[in-house]
Amino acid sequence: MSLDMEKLKTLAFRMLDDVGAAASGALVLLGDRLGLYQALVDHGPVTSEALAAKLGLHERYLREWLHAQTVSKYIDYDAATETFSICPEQAMVLANPASPVNMAGGYWGISALYAAEPKIADAFKTGAGLPWGEHSTCLFCGTARFFGPGYRANLIEQWIPALDGVKEKLERGARVADVGCGHALTTRLMAKAFPNSQFVGIDVHQPSIDHAAEIAREEGLTNIRFEQGTAQQFNGSGYDLVTFFDCLHDMGDPEGAVRAVAERLAPGGTLMVVEPQAGDSLSENMNPVSRAFLSFSTMVCVPASLSQPGRAALGAQAGEKKLSAVIRAGGFNHVRRACDSSTNMILEARRQA
To answer: Which of 43, 163, 220, 319 could be bridged to 280 by S-S, CB 3.0 to 4.6 A?
Structure first.
């Protein structure tokens, strides 16, 4: 067998670059945990010695971290003064938690993927699933921080207004169930924005519900409550809006989950389904966004679905066509794509006569 040496070289260097990126992820976690990116915002340009003194850190460790981050082009270096700094664009991605493009927090979720690898290797052999609750707790905070910037930037100002009449209902006062809420950032964002409405966050994972309730109390939100439940079995009826944020594809029986929503909506109510951005075929998903989502899907989303009755395993790149078919099969005869962001598609579903 003859080898195409240029093709081999290209792949080998691509993998070497990926090895560097994977190893750099641990350094991003260090920078996030120790506040190093924000310190560069506050004190840069700065030498490693001066920054170590300001932060009370060991200079030799910090110097190696700064060198590695410079080579990754995550921060800047001035050779003439031997100082390190972070430009506004780098700060938006790494230092500013309110930035819509902040990426640092997502690396906590990536750390959970590596921790779960032995379990997923066994699942490849047996076909068994792996529930979210059996992953490292880093997955929960990492997921909240990865999706959080997009939710903060888009949910209230873009996504809800794109739904037919929903914003007006929420302003007047509506009943809302946020199913699969996790740490409930979405539930809390909506509760803050629409104080006349009542919200319930529902999740199967009790520790996430407990954490969400604690944050809501700290934020002084009185129009929100939480309960443990599955997407197929949760309390209440007469909801004006039910939401699924990046979770329908994780469910073992997504059609059953949608059907449960259809039974609990008030007349004229709306189902809002937010899912990862994806085309309807693999050839449409040959891009960096899909690369990230497919990796998480292999390690988290498909195993989660295979751990539940139904075992549908839609995956995080199901695409609009497949998702819309599931929603229609669950009892909704009107499904449309209301809007998009760079990482998400927003589907609106109604039952119309």
So the answer is: 319
278 and 155 share a domain? yes
> Quick one: 269 and 170 in the same domain?
yes
d(CA 105, CA 294): 19
Structure tokens at 55: 């932060």
The answer to whether residue 65 is domain-embedded is: yes
28 and 150 in a single domain? The answer is: no
Are 66 and 174 contained in the same domain?
no
Characterise 119 by phi-psi region: left (phi > 0), alpha (psi -120 to 50), beta (else): alpha
pTM of the model: 0.93
Pairing of strands 334-340, 344-350: antiparallel
**Vertex 331 angle, CA 297 and 200, to 5°:** 65
Can you name the residues that pair with 276 across neighbouring β-strands? 344
Q: Cα(315)–Cα(296) distance, rounded to whole angstroms?
A: 9
Residue 259 identity (one-letter amino acid): R
Q: Which of 326, 333, 351, 303 is nearest to 248 (CA)?
A: 326
Over residues 228-279, the pLDDT tens digits come to: 999 999 999 999 999 999 999 999 999 999 999 999 999 999 999 999 999 9
Indicate whether 187 belongs to any domain.
Answer: yes
Q: Which long-range contacts (CB under 8 A, 24 or more apart) does 160-164 make?
A: 160/190, 160/272, 162/338, 162/339, 162/346, 162/348, 163/241, 163/270, 163/272, 163/338, 163/348, 164/270, 164/348, 164/350
Smallest CA-to-CA distance from 134 within 121, 146, 120 is with 120
Does 222 lie in the same domain as 143?
yes
As a whole number of angstroms, the distance between CA 280 and CA 290 comes to 12
pLDDT in tens, 189-217: 999 999 999 999 999 999 999 999 999 99
Whether 115 and 230 share a structural domain? yes
**Residue 97 host element (H or E):** none
CB atoms within 10 A of CB 27: 18
Residue 147 tokens, joined: 């999706």
- Domain holding 289, by residue range, is 106-350
Indicate which CATH number applies to the domain containing 295: 3.40.50.150
Last residue of a domain, one of 50, 74, 94: 94
Inside any domain, residue 3: no
